[in-house]
Description:
Elements: E1 2-3, E2 12-15, E3 18-28, E4 36-43, E5 49-55, E6 59-62, E7 65-76, E8 79-84, E9 90-93, E10 109-115, E11 121-125, E12 129-137, E13 151-156, E14 161-165, E15 173-177, E16 182-186
Antiparallel strand pairs: 1-6, 2-3, 2-6, 3-4, 4-5, 7-8, 7-10, 8-9, 10-11, 12-13, 12-15, 13-14, 15-16
Amino acid sequence: xxxxxxxxxxxxxxxxxxxxxxxxxxxxxxxxxxxxxxxxxxxxxxxxxxxxxxxxxxxxxxxxxxxxxxxxxxxxxxxxxxxxxxxxxxxxxxxxxxxxxxxxxxxxxxxxxxxxxxxxxxxxxxxxxxxxxxxxxxxxxxxxxxxxxxxxxxxxxxxxxxxxxxxxxxxxxxxxxxxxxxxxxxxx
Length: 188
């Protein structure tokens, strides 16, 4: 059991019979009335987010989860297959349990979030940044910039399309932010 004073980003709680992770929270003390906590919660099973307001001091059931290191092996008709880095145990996950499946490449390291008591797999998370090669993009021409942030679409080695700056060319390695699916920087 915890109270709203124990809230922090990433804390997993049981709310309305489902498991949620706190994405964002804000303690509010209005000049008139009781204090409360505004939260944005992410459902660990479906990935959907919702906003909820808790009264200050209310008791919440916390849930123990574990983040385990896995390596993405391959995708087949059964789903996405992963291998645990320490025990070499292999598991298969369905596509709806994984975000940004088009940014996965074979050998990619991920964290699989598991409910500690029931051993249920809740989700699979990529690291914050991945490095991938650009396989196709149109050449960027000088003078094409209407603003200072001129972008063009680029196809990367996994088949996903990401907007990149005009100076990026075919064959270059780029770093992509997996949370926003945006270009971060060129890899040297």
